[in-house]
Amino acid sequence: MPENDKISRREMLKKLGQWGVVGAVAATGAAGAIKVITEADKILSRPSLELIPTPEPEKPTLAPQPTENIKPPSIIIENDSPAPDRLSRKEFVMNFGEEKRVELDLDWAPDTHTSMLKHYGKFLVFLSGRRESYRIETDNLEIMSNPLQILAPDFSENKGGTIEYTGTGSVIPGANTNELIMFYHQETWGNHNGQNFRADICLAVSKDNGFTWEKKETIIEGKKPAIPGKRTSGAGQPCAITFKNEVFVFYVDWNAVDGFDAIHVAKTKIETVNNPNTWQKFNGRDFGAPGITDQSTAVISPAVDREKLAYCALPDVSYNQYLNRWLALFETMDGFYTCTSADLLHWENYQNVFPFPKPRDKQERGDNWFSYPTLISPDCSSDRITDQNGILIYSKGQFEKTPHNMYFSPFRLT
């Protein structure tokens, strides 16, 4: 297609709206204005037309699985949390190498947090693209061929709209051999328009190393979620870690109560991960608020610097062995930021490690656009553990002009 004939995602939405397919979008107040700026970027990653079926590759016959294949969460790896007998590094510099595009047979990807697990010497990668979730097995994180679609929206009615987006956020080992647990970002759209969705965090279970999945119930809802189509609301973009036989899920809460979008956390015991009634949100004092409730307090918040941050989204949390601290990477208005913690609840040392060429609210059509970051250290067993060296995986595209695609830049902490 000639360059001047390309149509932007936003313009396509406008035209569909004129034809009565989708409605117009209205911002309400200062908080609403921020919503439009931040969420409009994300809408570029969601084709609103009918899903294109993805051919399913023939499922390989699984070889006999040794018990150490993917270990239960309680024995995933040694030193998967800060060691009390080691000093921690609170201050650091994150340096990046040359940017490269990943050979991935999928556009509009990644579209949420990316998960990696080691499996028989290969990388098992779970990511979202378009509106679905995919599984990739590869020897090289620079080449991700033959993505297998494993989860897709079923367009069923839900909370005043229809479920039209199911993007994997995190995948962790389950309690049994070959069992995996997925936390995914589900969107309910009003009038088939993804502009002002309601998000919920749901759970799925696989018993064959991620080839097939059984959807379970919603485990986390946001504060005061709105009717789909009214405004962006709810809880989404999950990133899960394990610590002391518990599972912690960090997520974004889009709400009109706090006045800004920020990162919250909920947890449960590993053995009760499938039970939505056991999930507890952090409420500012302890984990006392049920996951299906409107009570929670942000742990990583733009309140530390409202002028620069505006919002905090897309959490990527790992135990960093080099720092001997928990390391969080997340997106804001003007770049990818990091902060660190000793206890997963109190975060400090916010710094912009990956500044955007322009802040979100200053971007123009054709500008480079970055989002959906994840840190991975290939020598570690999963994305939940990082080290001094690794790669930053992210999406890059031209704002309102092209799909976004997967890129990476090597990083080193000093």
Number of strands: 26
Q: Say what the CATH topology is.
A: Tachylectin-2, Chain A
Order of helices and strands: HHEEEEEEEEEEEEEEEEEEHEEEEEEEE
From the coordinates shown, what is the CATH architecture?
A: 5 Propeller
Broad CATH class: Mainly Beta
The chain-level structural class is mainly beta
Radius of gyration: 20 Å
Portion of residues in beta strands equals 35-45%
Name the poorly predicted regions. Answer: 1-79
Largest sheet: 10 strands, mixed
Total of domains: 1
> How many helical elements?
3
What does this structure look like?
- The protein has 414 residues and is mostly beta strands.
- The protein has one domain: 5 Propeller (Tachylectin-2, Chain A), CATH 2.115.10.20.
- The protein contains three helices and 26 strands.
- The protein has helices at residues 9-18, 29-43, 306-309, and strands at residues 94-96, 100-101, 103-104, 115-119, 122-129, 132-138, 143-144, 148-151, 157-158, 161-173, 180-190, 193-206, 214-220, 233-243, 246-254, 262-269, 280-282, 287-290, 313-320, 325-331, 335-341, 347-355, 368-376, 385-386, 389-398, 405-413.
- The strands form five sheets. Strands 9, 10, 11, 12, 13, 14, 15, 16, 17 and 18 form a ten-stranded mixed β-sheet that branches. Strands 1, 2, 23, 25 and 26 form a five-stranded antiparallel β-sheet that branches.
- A hairpin with a 4-residue loop joins strand 19 and strand 20.
- The longest helix has 15 residues, at 29-43.
- It is globular, with a radius of gyration of 20 Å.
- It starts with 8 loop residues before the first helix and ends with a strand.
- Mean pLDDT is 81; it is low at 1-79.
